[in-house]
Structure formats: C-alpha cells, structure tokens
Specification:
The protein is α+β, with helices and mostly antiparallel strands and 162 residues long. The protein contains four helices and eleven strands, in the order αβββαββββββααββ.
Length: 162
C-alpha cells in the first residue's frame, strides 16, 4: 500500500495521542481511509478538512442526541475526533448499519433538490437498493427530520441491510 506522507504523519499523530496502533485497513474512498485499531475501534482519516467537518459534525449531532440506531440501522458511536489530523474515531458496527457522513449536511432546513436532481436521486436509490428503496427513503427522511442530517451519499457501502 502506497500511503501519502501527510497521511502517515496524521496517522502517527492520532496513534500517539490515543495510545493505540492501526491494525488493518477497513476501507478507502474519495473522502478518506478507514483503519481498525488495537482498541477494537475504527479511525477514519479524511482527505479534506471540509469532508472531515461534515462527518465530525454529523457524529457529534448523533452523539448529542444519544443515537446508536436509526430505524433499525446501527450507527457508529463517536469516540474521539482530531481536528489537526482530520480524523474521527468511532465504534465498529455490524449490519444493518448506516455510516459515512462525509458528504452530509447539518441543519439545512428547507433544503430541496431541484426537480432533475431529485428525480435522478430517486432513480439512483431505486436502482441501488431495489425493493429496499422505500426503507432507504424512510431512513433518509428520519435522519433529516429528527436529527437535522441531510445524507447525500446513500449507497450500499454506507447503508447496509443484514
């Protein structure tokens, strides 16, 4: 694995601060890389401060509301965050789960997609989730209505059924 030097520096910084080791990579994408730790948790190192703040703020909102489950989907618990390293540490959850809030928006009251975008979004969710699309729409509505979190990255890696 070829890891950029700045990511290595951030990884070392968080590991020293939390007194733990990274044991394996759990995933990687456009918004960052996720690693399992020696404490049985996960740390996500974000690729950009904006996506880090989006995710941190969504998990802070869920923590503030003591949310660990939304409509039957397990939600990771925020354990710590590290602004200088653009990293969040969270619990590891089992399916069904909801995770990855790097593209989320907080408190976007009155937000509405334009009609073309909304049509594309609905078609995309139907294509990705098939007969479970209604469950996904209900989950997204609950997130926005009850917790003020607008999740924009509704994909099977982020919303997983059993």
């Amino acid at each position: 694995m070829n890891v950029p030097f700045d990511l290595v520096q951030r990884m070392i910084s968080v590991c020293v601060a939390t007194r733990q080791n990274l044991t394996s990579q759990l995933g990687a994408g456009k918004d960052g890389s996720v690693f399992a730790t020696s404490h049985g948790t996960a740390i996500k190192f974000h690729s950009h401060p904006t996506v880090y703040r989006n995710e941190r703020d969504a998990y802070l909102r869920l923590k503030e509301k003591r949310v660990t489950n939304v409509n039957g989907f397990n939600v990771p618990k925020l354990l710590s965050f590290h602004d200088a390293a653009n990293a969040v540490e969270m619990s590891i959850v089992q399916p069904p789960y909801l995770l990855d809030f790097a593209s989320a928006r907080i408190d976007e009251d009155g937000f509405a997609f334009d009609s073309d975008t909304e049509e594309f979004r609905h078609a995309n969710i139907h294509e990705l989730f098939g007969d479970r699309a209604a469950d996904v729409f209900l989950l997204l509505d609950t997130l926005q209505r009850r917790f003020g979190i607008l999740m924009l990255d509704a994909r099977p890696p982020n919303i997983r059924f059993e």
